[in-house]
Amino acid sequence: MYIEIKNVSKIYNQSPNNNQKALDGANLSIEKGEFICLLGPSGCGKTTLLNLLAGFEKPSEGSITIDGKPVEKPSIKHVTIFQNYGLLPWRTVQGNVQLGLESLGLDKKDIKEIADEYIELVGLGEFKKHHPYQLSGGMQQRVAIARALAVDPDIVFMDEPFGALDALTRMKMQEEVSNIWQKKKKTIIFVTHDIDESVYLADRIVIMTAYPGRIKSIINVPLARKRDRTHPDFLRIRDRVFAEFEMKQKDTIEYYL
Fold it and tell me: What is the pTM of this model?
């Protein structure tokens, strides 16, 4: 298995007498090329688990391996896209997308060609000389996605990247990410608290309980892409996911739909 999470817990030491357990005994296996959504309410440990996978933090208990190697620190092969975009305001679209490539020691011609390829991939070819302040929120997020993909990562971590967008733009970005995933087949771990978003995007939905965070259930989403949000099969899976949040039991369950 490509990614292995085994009995992982994370405890934050707030003070000598106040330890906060954000994540409790998480177990999860992820195949290479899968699109996984971590779904749950605020404070359920989704972002904590993502930070552990990305190497920003270390588990208090348990282990995480990627391709058989322990995760010990962030890697340029495992990039993270945040909700706030993280674009440099003094750089153009092209300059922002080139940023990660510059650290790889490539020559300027290759950097420009690769950056332009991914700018076109996210549909911003006409805007590559624009600065972030000249772009909408959705366009800025496209730049962040292009920048992440340009360095050819093995894994893309996405932490509620569309949370600040309006509903229509959010749906458009979900479609864009789904299309890009089909073209590039990167492993994507996507944090969300939106049920419809998870059903639209994921191969599997990992549902997490409220604090302390535990993996409650995993639901397969065997729907063809492009997905129709009004199709009975889509609605059936959405209803199953919603029902999981209503259930009182806390045992881990694997559903094969």
Answer: 0.88
Sequence-distant (≥ 6) Cβ neighbours of residue 105 within 8 angstroms: none
Query: How far apart are the C-alpha atoms of 136 and 100, rounded to whole Å?
Result: 22
With 0-12 / 13-18 / 19 or more C-beta atoms within 10 angstroms meaning exposed / middle / buried, residue 32 is middle
- Is beta strand 61-66 parallel, antiparallel or unpaired with respect to 69-70? antiparallel
What's the pLDDT tens digit per position in 196-219? 999 999 999 999 988 788 899 999
Contact (Cβ atoms closer than 8 angstroms) between residue 189 and residue 179 = no
Supply 174's token pair. Answer: 């979900």
Please state, in angstroms and as integers, the Cα–Cα distance from residue 12 to each residue in 9, 20, 43, 234, following that order. 10, 5, 13, 38
Instruction: For helices 137-150 and 93-102, give the axis angle rounded to 10 degrees.
Output: 30
Residues facing 145 on adjacent strands: none
How far apart are the two ends of the chain, measured CA to CA in Å?
21
